[in-house]
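Weekend entry, working from home. Most of the wet-lab plans are on hold until the incubator is repaired, so I used the time to fold the two sequences that have been sitting in the queue since the last round of cloning. Logging both here for the record. First:
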Amino acid sequence: MSDSKHFTETRVRSLTKTVSWRFVAVMNSFTILTLSFSERPLTNAIAMNISGFFAFYIFERVWNMIYWGRIPGDAPNEAIRPN
């Protein structure tokens, strides 16, 4: 991997991140709604958004440590780039 901090993501990486994030988001919503912190829907909605905020932060930090599907940004235009 290049020391460059600039990179492009492959389509497969972007799709994988998207699908895995939706799974995390659905599980977050399911957990909050199952626990039902309150009888008030607004309270549960706020809890889902706050927990989703932290879940997304952690999700992105984990994905930043995964180099699979990254193409160095300084790669020449002629370079063969995987899907």
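Second, folded right after the first finished:
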Amino acid sequence: MRAKQVLGMFVAMAVLACGTMSAAQDVTTLPIREEQQLYEIMAEFINNGPANHQFGYLADIAGLSSVFSSTTTKDESTALFTYVVDAQNFQVVTHGAFRITDRVGTCTIYLNNGPSDFNNPASFSQGTPIQVSTYRQTVVVRLADNTFVSTNTHAITKVETFSLNGVNYRLGQFGKSFRSTYSGVVGLNQPPLVTGFFAGTAVGMK
């Protein structure tokens, strides 16, 4: 009888341990669905010859109630998620009042590891990469005032689980795609080295 009781106790402990492990491993995926608005982006960029470096933060993520560490200050210093693109021009065409630039590269979204600062572009890459995608950009610049719009496609090649407020998440799904669009300006009394500024949104693709 005692042996059965001991065996029963071990079985109960094993079931409890499995349940605890399963709960600890539960992951909430923040999915990408066709035409669903996913992210809002605030960023700056630096052009250096054919190289383009974009750095900024996500101002909103579908499925999360907040993406800032403060309820009052909402900027790069409190952003929980940062956005970095490294791309290269492969074609530039100018005609009359417009210039079109095409680029390819990589986009990485980070779980931020501390306050970021637009005076220090490297601070936007200091966190943990949680989503990586291939990146294809087409930028249309209006030369009269150096404003631009761009359309960009992202195909996710990697996602990593991250924890926020005690919940495990994944940002998107491997193999899914989304489209981002920017509206921005080149110049405008920017600090040294910074080429321009933009704001953007991203929506899911089929």
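Plan for Monday: verify the second prediction. Residues 30-204 form one domain.
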